Amino acid sequence: MPEEGVPLSPDGSLLTTPEIMRLVRLFVSCGVTKIRLTGGEPTVRKDIVELVQQIGKVPGVEEICITSNGIALHRKLAALHAAGLTSLNLSLDTLVDGKFLLITRRNGLNAVLKSLRTALELGVRKVKLNVVVMKGINEDEVLDFVELARNSEIEVRFIEYMPFDGNKWQLSKMVSYEDILSNIRAYHEVLPVDHSHGDTAKVFQIPGFKGRIGFITSMTSNFCSTCTRLRITSDGNLKVCLFGNDEVSLRDLLRSGTEDAELLKYIGTAVKNKKEKHAGLGELENMPNRPMILIGG
Fold this sequence. Notes:
9 helices, 297 residues, globular, 3-stranded antiparallel β-sheet
């Protein structure tokens, strides 16, 4: 979230539940099996539990995931799990109260940790922690995060700090995954886990640990050639690359009465125009892009 915040989107500009469900059915009809609800923050949506339940009833959906900041999630997790939630990504960049307040501008560390505990107690199938590592801010906590995977079946994912509008990205703040991994290897044996097609993380196992660690290496080692992800923003724009500025308004197409077959043509054209790889260091930070909160994780 940019320090100055972002303008709130009027309700009328956001996708309605029927529009979301139409797009879900459309994409699933083309072979998509995993649906992730992000945001902003998906738990602020009043019908989030009902939405998960509806998605779970679509034939062909195998995974229903949520990415959340975890602040209010623990109050809805039991209902979400019962509705069919299979996977949870929690965003958490620090385990220190003061730093949490500095990074998020709110006092909610205990609430996020409660959401993590609740997810594990409920037996959510996949639980991941997303940790953006920033030099001079939380790089000294890497080993503390690794310890969370010792006795819990979670995947702690360290994410290279990426530039988005409003986050004041600087190269001097970025910690490469090689440096993070080297730090961990000084204390633990780290074994690579086989990479499945479409995986965005480089995953490793530490012998004796129930959980695993992973790395999202968008800045220093892109995985564009195997990326199978498509994003639809809350206001209905299709992004075929997290760092791409070419967006197609599926919302406007839906509201103009476009038939499913025609919608698929627009989607197909956008996917075919996906670039071989996104820009790298030296270019990416100079390209305009939405703030991450307006894209979704």
